[in-house]
TrEMBL record, chain A:
This is Amino acid/amide ABC transporter membrane protein 1, HAAT family. GO terms for cellular component: plasma membrane. It comes from Pseudomonas migulae. It comes from the Bacteria. It is a multi-pass membrane protein.
From TrEMBL, chain B:
This is Amino acid/amide ABC transporter substrate-binding protein, HAAT family. Residues 1-22 form the signal peptide. It comes from Pseudomonas migulae. Keywords: Signal. Pfam families: Peripla_BP_6 (PF13458). InterPro entries: BCAA_transport (IPR051010), Leu-bd (IPR028081), Peripla_BP_I (IPR028082). Residues 25-359 form the Leucine-binding protein domain.
Length: 303, 386
């Protein structure tokens, strides 16, 4: 029963990673931009959600505000800054998007202050559901898993069964060719970027009641998100899903069982520090192993 | 005639230099963390210090002072650059640093020709054998708060506890400190530094079914932990004992109702009847429009301590031996209760247990439960040769 609960916990972390990684991988795969500012949109979403919820008291309105807020901010950043970066080399992109991170952090500080805001939640959000006989699980976390699953299905439909999805796939394969065929590539870029920001906003909204809404919250999760897209295969949404599941599970189950396992094998003084180190390194160890076996990631965009 | 002229000139120059000395404010270098998510700690500290100066119209202990605030950005290297520059400028009195790793970078330069008076962190490395004559800690020694949490847990009658902290020096010190005084059975769980989600650890806590837990997660991680502890339903059945840095006033506001019932171990009781404290809370709330945190409180205390020492040397900080003696013998109305410096020049203060409860308006407040220890000397003082 505890194992099942830990698997659900792993799934919930995977859902957060997937929401962030799917947008990031599309942006990287299609525009070729290393977007260090991706976490900033997640933060914007969380702040919009917390602010709206405390003003209006409505949970769903907060969700809407988070998505719209980060979409608008994404549109602003894309049209003013990102657009100039597509043709430039990676160093310029890293510098410029890092600047966006600093700028956004200060902007949020000026607008909302330094104190992390609280996100009020409705009564039902704090309740529990009996998932299996004897296994009570919080609604808040189930909702997170459900959101991740829904987005995964929606993206599969979008990418495999719509015209826009076809363009995205084509763009990930060869964006110059797509442009040469008369597709308005600038508009496609804007669309993909804003779409990534919408997913960040959604992730920010889902995370706001569970995690602390604070300046710099995006940077903390960004490194793991990069690990996810590298493991999954850059540019591939399926890869992002596989990577998020793998990293989420390894992290969750690792934290749950590595200390207990090592406690039985080794004396207490050694096992404590060793397990701590192993847990921190687990995601990177997985990444190294995956890259050794499949240098282009688990499910790369171009087969 | 010539003699008279020279004499008058000499006398005049003496008077002017005396006047100049009286007018030159004592400069205080205040290096603190104002940016990064931890920026509110520095902000509250700075505002607490400034409040003490403003209450005396630009003076501390009747001596004019000027406060020079710099942001270290939580980077020891940047703090080192700042202190080198301030030291070249001839500043000889410093305070403000929030984090131990930043303090480690500035303390040697600060105490070479001047004084450092800590308003927040007091790492164990500088409290024992390595204690320094020009280094004073007006706040607390880091380990003591965790030791006091252990004492509080004993008194609350908890026999079996799970204790959690991030896997870095501060976290390991916290758990070691707690175990030094706690008498019951413990299970230790180390979390990752900057971990966001604690569901896995919380599931393990539930399966271990302890009487209570102790956790040390400052800043955002502490808010995450408390929120998730609440949403997992554990807060209803298993009480928490935390040092105040895991749940300060701002974190409490961000955490919301799930923090209800938390036991908080602290060095300052915000509701204390102590008149100096009442005046401080009122003045701070009126000036800055927010409730002061423990960081504001202890830095305000530091400012007033400096004021009392300056007063007893008449504003003359040029004689280090006299100023040091003035600091060691300092007497002031601390807002935290009785105050004295121990052998290692670390604060000997009272420790309190507070509990988070809702007041008549439904607002969460920290209600005093009991005094854990009176005039507690830290565990390292005996090793110091000062």
């Amino acid at each position: 029963m505890l194992l099942l609960e830990q698997i659900l916990n792993g799934l919930q972390y995977s859902a957060l990673l997937f929401l962030l990684a799917s947008g990031l991988t599309l942006i990287f795969g299609i525009m070729g931009v290393i977007n260090l500012a991706h976490g900033a949109f997640y933060m914007v979403g969380a702040f919009c959600a917390a602010y709206t919820a405390s003003l209006s008291g409505s949970f769903w309105l907060a969700g809407l505000a988070a998505v719209i807020g980060s979409a608008l901010y994404g549109l602003l950043i894309e049209t003013s800054i990102m657009r100039r970066l597509y043709a430039r080399d990676h160093l310029d992109q890293v510098l410029a998007t890092l600047a966006v991170v600093f700028f956004t952090n200060e902007l949020i500080t000026v607008l909302f202050g330094r104190s992390p805001p609280a996100m009020p939640t409705p009564e039902w959000y704090g309740t529990f559901v009996e998932v299996l006989p004897g296994l009570m699980y919080p609604v808040s976390r189930l909702l997170f898993i459900a959101a991740g699953a829904l987005v995964a299905i929606a993206m599969w439909l979008l990418i495999n069964h719509t015209r826009l999805g076809m363009l995205i796939r084509a763009g990930a394969d060869d964006h110059e060719m797509v442009g040469a065929l008369g597709v308005n590539i600038a508009r496609l870029y804007t669309l993909v970027f804003v779409f990534g920001c919408v997913l960040c906003g959604l992730a920010g909204f889902m995370a706001a009641p569970l995690l602390s809404v604070e300046i710099g919250m995006g940077e903390k999760v960004l490194i793991t998100t990069f690990v996810v897209i590298v493991v999954g295969g850059v540019g591939s949404v399926r890869g992002a899903l596989a990577g998020a599941l793998l990293i989420g599970m390894v992290d969750g189950l690792g934290r749950a069982y590595i200390p207990q396992l090592l406690d039985q094998l080794l004396p207490a003084e050694v096992s404590g520090t060793l397990s701590g180190g192993l847990i921190s390194a687990s995601a990177y160890i997985v990444m190294a192993v995956v890259l050794l076996v499949r240098p282009r990631g688990l499910l790369p965009a171009r087969a | 005639m010539k003699k008279l002229l020279v004499g008058t000139l000499l006398a005049a120059s003496c008077v002017t230099s005396l006047l100049a000395q009286a007018q030159d404010p004592v400069r205080i270098g205040f290096i603190t963390t104002l940016s990064t998510p931890a920026g509110y700690l520095g902000e509250d500290s700075r505002d607490g210090f400034q409040l003490a100066i403003d209450q005396e119209n630009g003076k501390l202990g009747g001596v004019p002072v000027s406060l020079l605030v710099e942001d270290d950005g939580l980077q020891p290297a940047r703090a080192k650059q700042i202190i080198d520059r301030m030291s070249l400028d001839g500043i000889s009195l410093y305070t403000g640093v929030i984090f131990s790793n930043v303090l480690a970078a500035v303390v040697n330069t600060a105490t070479k020709d001047g004084f450092y008076i800590s308003n927040n962190t007091g790492p164990s490395s500088l409290a024992g054998k390595q204690c320094k004559p020009h280094y004073f800690v007006a706040s607390y020694q880091n380990d003591t708060i965790h030791e006091m949490a252990g004492v509080a847990a004993n008194e609350l009658g908890y026999k079996k506890m799970v204790i959690l902290a991030p896997n870095y020096q501060g976290g390991r010190d916290a758990l070691e400190g707690f175990k030094r005084t706690y008498k019951g059975e413990v299970t230790e769980i180390y979390t990752k530094l900057n971990q966001l989600d604690f569901s896995v650890e919380l599931a393990r806590v539930r399966s271990l079914a302890p009487d209570a837990i102790f956790e040390f997660h400052p800043g955002g991680a502490g808010i995450n932990f408390a929120k998730q502890y609440g949403s997992s339903g554990l807060s209803k059945t298993i009480p928490m004992v935390v040092p105040v840095f895991s749940m300060d006033e701002r974190m409490l506001a961000a955490t919301g109702d799930v923090a209800k019932g938390m036991n908080i171990v602290t060095l300052w009781n915000p509701g204390s009847e102590n008149p100096a404290n009442q005046a401080f809370v009122k003045a701070f709330s009126e000036k800055y429009n927010r409730v002061p945190t423990v960081y504001a409180a202890q830095t305000y205390d530091t400012a007033r301590l400096i004021g009392a020492a300056l007063k007893s040397v008449g504003g003359n900080t040029k004689d280090p031996a006299a100023f040091r003696q003035a600091l060691r013998d300092v007497k002031f109305d601390s807002i935290r209760g009785d105050f004295a410096f121990g052998k290692n020049q670390h604060a000997v203060i009272d420790w309190y247990l507070l509990r988070v409860e809702a007041d008549a308006n439904g607002k969460l407040v920290q209600v005093p439960v009991q005094t854990i220890a009176k005039s507690q000397v830290d565990s390292f003082a005996a090793e110091c040769a000062l």
